[in-house]
Amino acid sequence: MSARVTSGIQYSSFSGWLDRPTDHAPSLEGQVDADVVVVGGGYLGMGTALRLAERGIDVALLDSQFCGWGAASRNAGYLTNTLAGDAQMLAALHPRRLRKAIRFADSSVGFSNGLIERHGIECDYERTGNVIAAVTEGQLKRSRHNAGILVDAGADAEFVEGRAFGLPDAFFGGIYERAGGLINPGKYARGLRDAVLKSGARVYENSPVGSIRPGRAGVVVTTPAGRIRAQRVVIANNAHSRDLAIAPPRMTAPLWVSLVETEPIDPERLRATGWTSRVGISTHHLVLESYRITPRNTILFGVRRPEAARGALGAREVDPRVASDLVRAFRLRFPTLSDVEPRRAWGGWIAMTPSWLPLAGEADDNVFYAIACNGHGLAQGPYLGALLADRLAGDDPHEDLRTLWRRRPWFSPSPASSATAVRAAWTVDRLSDRLGRRAG
Ligand SMILES: Cc1cc2nc3c(=O)[nH]c(=O)nc-3n(C[C@H](O)[C@H](O)[C@H](O)COP(=O)(O)OP(=O)(O)OC[C@H]3O[C@@H](n4cnc5c(N)ncnc54)[C@H](O)[C@@H]3O)c2cc1C
Questions:
Q1: In the chain, N or C: fewer CB atoms in 10 Å?
Q2: How many whole angstroms separate alpha carbon 288 and alpha carbon 133?
C-alpha cells in the first residue's frame, strides 16, 4: 500500500481496508459494441452490470481505475437503511415521498443481505444494526422526535437509551435502526468485483470515459484508447459524474470525506467504555460524526468535517488538519481511551444530491443516470443498480425505482456545493457541542 506516514499516522490515497488489486481487467482498446454500457464500477455500477449479465444482456462495465476504486472500498462499512439527512428535514422536504423512500432504503438492506449470501462474499458482516446517537441534550430531544417520524413513516427503527442499549458513555441514546450492521467494505467491493468478473459482463478497467454521445446508430462512449457503441448507457460514476458533459448539471455536489483509524485496543477496554452492543454509531449533528469498532478491534471514526470540491476530483489524501480535528472529537467522545493513538487515515468522494435522496432518470435519449450516495450508498447502490437494470431489461419499473425517478434532468443547486455552507455547518455543530453538554 503506497502511503505517507506523518506523526504516526499512515495517510493512504486509497483505502485502509485493503490493497489495490493486482489483476486488472484489460482496458478498452479499439471499437466494440455492447447492448448496455455502464460507466463506473462502484456499488451502483457493479450492481447494474451484475443484474444485466444475470439476465443475459450483453453489458460492458468501464472503470477509470478498477472496480471498487472509489467510495465503494473506502467507506466506513455501515450497511444501513438510513436515509441521509435529518428525518424532520426530509419529512418537510418530501412529505409525500418519505414513506416510499424509507421503504426503498429498507428493501436495499434486504437486497444487500441476499447479494452477500448468494455470492458467498466474506466481508466480516456483524449484524448489529446502527444507531444515530445524541451527544447533547438537544440532540437527544431531536432523536426522540425523529424516531417517531421514522416509525410513523414505516421505518424499522426505535428510540433507545444509551447505556441501557450498550452505547459508550458519551452517547446518551438515539435512533436504533435494526436492519444491517457493519462490514469490511473493501472485502465487499472486492467480492462484488469477483462476482461481476465471473458473471459474463465484459469489464474494462483503466478506461476513463471522456464522453458519451447519443446518435442515430446508438450511443458512443469514448475512452482514451477506444470507443463502444451501445443501445443504452448508464452513468454510475458517483461524484465524478459532474465531469461528464452529458450528466445533468448540478445533479451532485461532491464532498471529500475523511476517516481515521486507531491502533488496536484491548477488547476489555472497549467494553469498559459501555459499548457492549458493538453497534455502528453516527451522531445527530448537522454533519455527522461516525464511530465503529472494526474486526481488528480498532475504532474507525470520521466525517464531521467534509470538504467541498475545488477543481478536479483526483486521488488525494486526508488533510492532516482534518485528521487532527477528527482525533480531537474521538478524544472528547472516548475520554477513557485518551492514550489510544491514531494509526491510519484515508478518505473518498461522496456525492450529495439536492433532494438528499437517491435518484435516477434519463439524461438524454438512452442515456440513464443513477446515484445512491449522499454518503449512504453501501446498501442502496447495488439495489438501485439492480432496479435500473431490471427496467433496462424490459420490466415495468419497480415501485421503489418510480419513487426515485426524475421526470426531468433538472436540479437546483445543493447547499453542499458551497465551501462556505459546509464550513458553517461545522461551526454550528461545534457551538451546539459546547452549549449542549450534559452537566455532571
Ligand atoms: C469515507 C466514506 C465513508 C462512507 N461511509 C459509508 C457508510 O458507512 N455507509 C454507507 O452506506 N455509505 C458510506 N459512504 C458512501 C458510499 O461509499 C457511497 O455511497 C457508495 O460507495 C457509492 O457507490 P457508487 O457506485 O455510486 O460510487 P463509487 O463507489 O464512488 O464508484 C464510482 C466509480 O466510478 C469510477 N469512475 C469515475 N469516473 C469515471 C469515468 N469517467 N469513467 C469510468 N469510470 C469512472 C470510479 O473509479 C469508481 O470506481 C461513505 C463514503 C466515503 C467516501
A1: C
A2: 10
pLDDT for residue 438: 64
Q: What is the DSSP letter of 126?
A: B
| Ligand 1 within 6 A of CB of 75 | yes
Which is the closest atom of ligand 1 to the Cα of 244?
A: 41
Evaluate whether residue 439 is within a structural domain. no
Closest by CA position to 253, among listed 136, 349, 387: 349
- Residues β-bridged to residue 344: 10, 261
With 0-12 / 13-18 / 19 or more C-beta atoms within 10 angstroms meaning exposed / middle / buried, residue 362 is: middle
State if residue 262 touches ligand 1 by the CB under 6 angstroms criterion: no
Separation of CA 394 and ligand 1 centre (Å): 27
Q: Check if 376 has its Cβ closer than 6 Å to any atom of ligand 1.
A: yes
Task: Give the residue from 327, 283, 348, 255 showing the smallest Cα distance to 135.
Answer: 283
* Ligand 1 lined by 383 (C-beta under 6 Å): no
Please indicate, yes or no, if residue 438 is contained in any of the structural domains.
no
Split into its structural domains, the chain has a count of 1
Q: Which atom of ligand 1 is nearest to the CA of 223?
A: 42
Residue 243 within a domain: yes
Mean pLDDT of 344-351: 97
The closest of 266, 356, 372, 422 to 48, measured between CA atoms, is: 372
The 3-state DSSP class for residue 95 equals coil
CATH code (residue 90): 3.50.50.60
Q: Percentage of the chain with pLDDT > 90?
A: 91
Q: What's the gap in Å between 145 CA and the centre of ligand 1?
A: 31
Beta bridge partners of 368: 234, 362
Domain assignment of residue 437, yes or no: no
Mutate to test the pocket of ligand 1, among 38, 80, 240 (most ligand atoms within 8 A of CB): 240
The angle at the Cα of 334, spanning 256 to 10, to the nearest 5 degrees, equals 45
Each residue's pLDDT tens digit, 141-174: 999 999 999 999 999 999 999 999 999 999 999 9
- Tell me which residue of 101, 348, 68 sits closest to 236, measured CA to CA: 68
Beta carbons within 10 angstroms of residue 79's beta carbon: 27
Full domain range(s) for residue 184: 3-431
